[in-house]
Amino acid sequence: MPEIFIDGQRYEFEEGTDKGLLQFILDNGKEVPFFCYHPSMSAPANCRQCYVKVGTPVKNRETGEYELDENGEREIRWFPKMQTSCTMQMQDGMVVQTQETSKEVARAQKDTMELILVNHPLDCPICDQAGECPLQIQTYKYGPEGSRFEVKKVHKPKRVELGPRVTLDAERCINCTRCVRFTEEISETHQLTITSRGDKNYPTTAPGREFDDPYSMNTIDICPVGALTSTDFRFKARVWEMNQTPSIDVTNGKGTNIDIWTRDNLVLRITPRYNGEVNDHWMSDAGREAYRRFNENRISRPALKLDGDNQSKTSWNNAIETFAETLEAGKPEDVLVIGSAHASVEENYALMKIFNLWGVNNFKFAPHIIEGAGDDFLLTDDQAPNTEGVKLLGYEESSDLKSDIKDAKIVIMFSDELIDREVLSPDDLKGKFSILLSTNECDTSKAADLVIPVTCIAEHAASYVNVDGRIQRSFPAKETKYTHRSLDLEMSQGRLDRYGTNFDNWVTEDNKVDCAPAWEIMNRLADRLGLNVEFGSPRDIMNEIATSNPAFEDISYERMDNEMGVNLNPSNKKEATA
Amino acid sequence: MASDWKSFEPVLIPDIPNLEKIDVYEKNGGYESLKKVVTGNDWTPESVVNEVKAANIRGRGGAGFNAGLKWSFMPKPDGGPRYLACNGDESEPGTFKDRKIFEYNPHLFIEGALIAAYAMQITTIYVYVRGEYISWVKMMEKALQDARDKGYIGKNLFGTDYSVEFEITYGAGAYICGEETSMLESLEGKRGYPRVKPPFPAQKGLWGRPTTINNIETLANVPLVIKNGSDWFKGIGAENHPGPVLYGISGHVNRPGVYELPTGVPVMELINDVAQGIRGGKKLKALIPGGSSTPVLRADQLEGISMDSDSLREAGSMMGTAGMIVMDEDTDMVDALWRISHFYHHESCGQCTPCREGTGWAEKILLKIKNGDGEIRDLDLLLDLTTQMEGRTICALADAAAWPIRHTINRFRDEFEARCKKSVHAVA
Question: Across the interface, do B350 and A152 touch by the CB < 8 Å criterion?
Fold first, then answer.
């Protein structure tokens, strides 16, 4: 195997790899500062930050042997100039010095950083990127102390709304061109370009055009400074005040891996989480904007129609009692359970299991497909995150829910806005007792006789099967009335959770929704109905599914965590270890 | 060779009336070299490359690389397109010699480009001309059409299998588009940004295909080499940098202009005899030998120096494009350097950090010094800044911006110190 020596340490690399030297250094746990390089895009080498010193061993042309110096070491012919490691291809025997072992490299990196900073506004205290800004971080690690720049900075346009979702502060731009390359190489809309020359340049759109690329907000993530900001998120929070929780995008069937960012129990933003098998580094703008559903318009505390069409809030005990009495007053064959492709595998399973035990055998779901809504990238025609999962659990796909519902006297709807998306109309529910377990207020919740609030993906651990048959899971990101970060081991903890007091964080009870996970509600219902079943946790439910449903064989939260999701197909089992 | 430059008869822009007309050009032996190589049994593409390599035509665009050697870097034809890109985007202050070829002898360049294309088995030639040269562009277009009408461009040249197309493109006016890879970007219809090398254009040039880039003047030498032989060419001018050269002399001389002479002419003879001395009988103060990016030389450094790469390197400068800027004793070097820095700041494409930020910072410090607000430490800062820029960017624009700063300050430091703040100066 070819070898390479970095700062005196020997590494082996795969022959024929097209991986650049910088990526190899990063992959091996070492660090070289960089700004313009991004592993999923071309390397323009324009920030000139990732300099390293490179040499190759001298070989005797006749013998093919390495020539040795007086110490018996290989003679190294150093490149006359320093090289940008992002564009440097590795060669067998290559010798590399980074800033750790070469003063020349450290000086060059410091020089470049000084130049980047001369026209960059030193507005970290107000910049939205503060706390997660590579320029800020690397300046502390590799930059100059103080400034020798005593002349006037260049002033470029500020607060430019490039499009509906992205705002530019051109003064902060360091011209890394990541955003331009994103629209050229990833989203392929070519909506951004660099305008003007020299230190006056900045990214913008063509005159009269707006940056409305459906993936435009990815440029915010990859901008290594605070030049491109989310118009929505600007000035809402500092990153160190927030908790970052891994989750899954539920706005379509791709199952994009995301991070949910919360503060004061509100989701403030969603960013993509790297998964090379699903979404690489990217996500759609629609997925990011969905965070509002986690905060706003939530169904909080159960509600019951007592007189006519007017719903009234009621207690959990009364809601469960009403639910049970309704079931007891009817026959199992009168019950239609409508599962949801918008809800998790565990929730749908718990629902199905309880009602199965009660004798119900009519389980349907209405797929949420919009033909043509997808693209060749991350958007799919399927608008739900778990269509495959619901099918695998045994829910029958309904092509005409209006007729399926006709004979039912008790309709149990679960986390699906069936009326809002015109699968059903309010009239279809007339004369029946309708029960909705769901997350957000909508026309469907208004029409139901009994409404029971359930946790959304931001509030529970659960798994979802994407359009490609890959099962991936979420972690709870925000508290409900009945959960607490420090008591729920699945819940991420941020700096303020660990080091703050109640005065710093989690003090607003108003932001906690009075809801419960569907499986907990099913536990209470089962208890009331005298069914001998109790779910312990979503993890337990998944373990149960894995042992009872062949499609989910060997699936566990541990595997999903370790493998960043698992493909549910015959190869879902790990290859047998020899 | 320097001694007989006075008897040299121009060959690139000879004194033949109406040479831009194809009939006149043909009457004077025009396109015979092309015919010779395309139809002659003695010539193969390889032998043309070897002849040009042997002649040691060193690129006239500034870098001075052996043109034939550059041609030999082209990979073997694989059936796909390959290109010759002719660089006529001269934008550097002090450089204005290609336009003479466009104006007086366009067919010599066209013939040279066609021979080069044949030698490298290229079937498409692009000429990139600075947009401001619109009148010369029109003349070139006319010359190309005449050559096409006569069958020198197009299908089956001289009844052979070899076909070639020739197009002219003009840039919108950015210095960086004269940098070879930026020119390729511009030819492809994109923003002029230099490309990272490797891959070099011979491997991956226009639209990802093998491409050779030559300067207009370089190509104009090619028919002469084919016609007269490489030994003839090597017998002109300096040994290691042979051939005729278009010297563009500007500045404080009595007769500025473009002069065709051999390489290796003593600098002082060029100034005093060819350009007829310093304007107003003033003394010579400084010379920029090859376009504004080449390091300035003090008058006392010019004794015994001739215009060829070896001699100028010894003196601490470069031949560049042979665009000589002559400065008399009244020249304010602070002002002159600020203006040069202003140019490079204005023309930096902004792609690489050291150039984008360094050129602007340097210009601002120089403006401060120019306005009498500078301090001695600013000079050291400027010198430090040049080390932060030189050799740290994709293309050589940062070098071109750094060298004038470093050398002008080092060679005229007294003048800069005198301009700095008096109070600080006194303390210093």
Answer: no
Instruction: Give the residue from A420, A416, A403, A322 showing the smallest Cα distance to A362.
Output: A403
**How far apart are the CA of A170 and the nearest CA of chain B, in angstroms?**
14
Instruction: Mark yes or no for CB contact B349/A48 under 8 Å.
Output: no
Output the CA–CA distances (angstroms, integers) from residue A275 to A10, A98, A258, A566, A571, in the order listed.
29, 29, 9, 12, 19
**Residue B174 identity (one-letter amino acid):** A
Give the separation between CA A191 and CA A551, rounded to whole angstroms. Answer: 43
Non-local (6+) Cβ contacts of B298 within 8 A are B285, B286, B411, B412
Rounded-to-integer distance, Cα B199 and Cα A85, Å: 15
Task: Give me the helices (H) in B173-261, please.
Answer: 180-187, 216-228, 230-234
CB of B191 less than 8 A from some CB of A: yes
CA-based nearest residue to B280, from B333, B326, B334, B338: B326
Q: What is the ipTM of this complex?
A: 0.92
- B356 closest CA partner among A118, A34, A178: A118
Cα separation, B245 vs A548, in Å, equals: 87
CA distance B195 to chain A (A): 8
Distant-in-sequence, close-in-space partners of B253: CB < 8 Å, separation ≥ 6? B271, B275, B276, B277, B278, B279, B326
> Any idea which residue has 């002649």 for tokens?
B55
* 8 Å CB contact between A505 and A264: yes
- Cα separation of A120 and A175, whole Å? 11
Instruction: Give the tokens for residue A531.
Output: 């069914």
Q: Cα–Cα distance between B316 and B302 in angstroms, integer?
A: 10
Q: How far is A225 from chain B (nearest CA, A)?
A: 14
Cα–Cα distances (Å) from A386 to A236, A307, A395, A568, in that order, read 31, 36, 12, 13
For an interface test with B, give the residue of A34, A48, A119, A202 to mutate (most B CBs within 10 A): A48
Two structure tokens written together for A481: 């009335």
- Cβ of B354 within 8 Å of Cβ of A111? The answer is yes
The amino acid present at A492, given as its one-letter code, is: S
Tell me the C-alpha distance between A544 and A563, whole Å: 20
Residue A63 has a CB neighbour count (10 Å cut-off) of 8
The total number of residues shown for chain B amounts to 428
**Hey, is the C-beta of B347 within 8 angstroms of any chain A C-beta?**
yes
Nearest to B348 among A154, A174, A197 (CB): A197
Q: Which of B193, B346, B365 sits opposite A198 (nearest CB)?
A: B346
Q: Do residues A283 and A258 make contact, with C-beta atoms less than 8 angstroms apart?
A: yes
Of B347, B350, B354, the CB nearest to A48: B354
CB A360 within 8 A of CB A335: yes
Task: Write the CA distances from A490 to A294, A540, A554, integer angstroms.
Answer: 18, 13, 21
Gap between the Cα atoms of B271 and B253, Å rounded: 7
Q: Using a CB-CB distance cutoff of 8 angstroms, which residues of chain A are in contact with residue B176? A: 197
pLDDT by residue for chain A (578 residues), tens only, comes to 999 999 999 999 998 888 999 999 999 999 999 999 999 999 999 999 999 999 999 999 899 889 999 989 899 999 999 999 999 999 999 999 999 999 999 999 999 999 999 999 989 999 999 999 999 999 999 999 888 999 999 999 999 999 999 999 999 999 999 999 999 999 999 999 999 999 999 999 999 999 999 999 999 999 999 999 999 999 999 998 899 999 999 999 999 999 999 998 999 999 999 999 999 999 999 999 999 999 999 999 999 998 777 899 999 999 999 999 999 999 999 999 999 999 999 999 999 999 999 999 999 999 999 999 999 999 999 999 999 999 999 999 999 999 999 999 999 999 999 999 999 999 999 999 999 999 999 999 999 999 999 999 999 999 999 999 999 999 999 999 999 888 887 888 888 888 877 776 655 788 899 999 999 999 999 999 999 999 999 999 999 999 999 999 999 999 999 999 999 975 554 444 33
pTM of the model: 0.93
